[in-house]
Amino acid sequence: MSDRGREVFRRLVEAYLETGEPVGSRTLSRSVSESVSPATIRNVMQDLELLGLLDSPHVSAGRVPTQMGLRLFVDGILEVGDVGVTERAEIERSLGRGDGDLPTILDRAGEMLSGLTHGASLVLSPKAEAPIRHIEFVSLGPDRALVVLVTADGQVENRVFEPPIGLTPSAMRQAANFLNAILQGRTLGEMRGVVAAEIVRRRAELDALAAHLIEDGTAVWATDGDGGRDRLIVRGRANLLEGTEDAEQLERIRGLFDDLERKRDLAQLLELTEGGDGVRVFIGSENKLFSLSGSSLVVSPYMNADRKIIGAVGVIGPTRLNYGRIVPIVDYTAQLVGRLVSSRSKG
User: Fold this and answer.
1) Per-residue confidence (pLDDT) for residue 206, from 0 to 100
2) Which residues contact 87 (CB under 8 A, 6 or more apart)?
3) From CA 53, how far away is CA 165, in angstroms rounded?
4) What is the domain count for the chain?
5) Which of 34, 118, 283, 293 has the lowest CB atom count within 10 Å?
């Protein structure tokens, strides 16, 4: 997109978000930074429409941003500043006292968000980490994956995360099969402990098998400089393979290396699963819960004293939300709720 196209697009989206009406070329010609004729702006708008960023809802010359256009605006153009002085004072007045029980504080947060933004508020309260009944990993591309968690109480939770580089879909399926076999009502944190213990056990077995090869001078440990992974370099391979016992040990070591790598991948997957987080601004059909109503959701998680996500606060409204104002309000509210939750747990 050219600089002129970017400015026309930004001005058009800002005008649409303010009025909710299609924006015409004459309106934009009065607001762009350089002197540009309405005819030139119409040509730019036509190019943006061909890119799928704008749409013509009526026979008039006015345009509105599409869902893809709003997504581009929010991700790449929107400038989010600090919370306004008035909004900050209102948030702190509503939540800053910190008195009452946690449900009361969260109720205040919801009421305050609804009043400040003139939208519907969303508040997810903390819950204890539930045991997992089933887990699945789904590859969404080279750098995105989805984990589906089914808890013992029947709840289903989806989390998007960035998988380790080079982890294949088949490796993810193997990881899910292994984890489902060891679940037995464990939480994610407990499963991480099981996998960590398995890594230690496999590593000890590997060290024991490799010890006499190293003592004989037929092998040496080396560390991969890129990933920090261990390698066993075998010297005089032809002589080594003449001994049946050594050959069997070498094959066993190879198998242990493969198994250790799988366990390390499992540990990394579990760590990413616990920290996985979705997109914070959902526009239109991106949010399946509100897709039919054409609404947007701005949501921000809040954390406890251990920096663990335990809940979220958000605002639901039309897709022409004032994102630049609402995003910092939701973020600041989440930070304040997190501080209140942390201070209560310490007390």
Assistant:
1) 61
2) 116, 325, 328, 329, 332
3) 32
4) 3
5) 34
The predicted pLDDT at position 183 comes to: 78
Q: Is residue 285 part of a domain?
A: no
User: Is the confidence at residue 321, as pLDDT, over 60?
Assistant: yes
Residues 92 and 43 in one domain: no
Domain boundaries, position 17: 3-77
Residue 9 within a domain: yes
Question: What is the average pLDDT score of the chain?
Answer: 75
Choice between 195 and 239, residue whose per-residue pLDDT is larger: 195
Q: Which of 191-195, 261-265, 336-340 has the least mean pLDDT?
A: 261-265
Q: Are 216 and 235 in contact (CB under 8 A)?
A: no
SS3 76: helix
Q: How far apart are CA 56 and CA 50, in angstroms?
A: 11
Helix residue spans in the chain (DSSP H): 3-19, 25-29, 38-50, 67-72, 85-95, 102-117, 169-182, 188-215, 237-240, 244-275, 323-346
The full 3-state SS of 2-67, as one line of letters, equals CHHHHHHHHHHHHHHHHHCCCECHHHHHCCCCCCCCHHHHHHHHHHHHHCCCEECCCCCCCEEECH
pLDDT grade for 289, boundaries at 50, 70 and 90: low
**C-alpha 290 chain-centroid distance:** 19
The predicted model scores a pTM of 0.56
Report the length, in residues, of the chain. 347
| pLDDT over 90 at 53, yes or no | yes
Same domain, 121 and 137: no
pLDDT at 255 > cutoff 70:
no
Q: 119-136: buried (b, 16+ CB within 10 Å) or exposed (e) per residue?
A: bebbbeeeeeebbbbebb
What is the structure's pLDDT at 243? Answer: 45
Task: Kindly report the number of other CB atoms within 10 A of residue 213's CB atom.
Answer: 19
Are 153 and 97 part of one and the same domain? no
State residue 242's pLDDT score. Answer: 43
Task: Give, rounded to a whole angstrom, the gap between the first and last alpha carbons of the chain.
Answer: 54
183 phi and psi, to 5 degrees? -55, -70
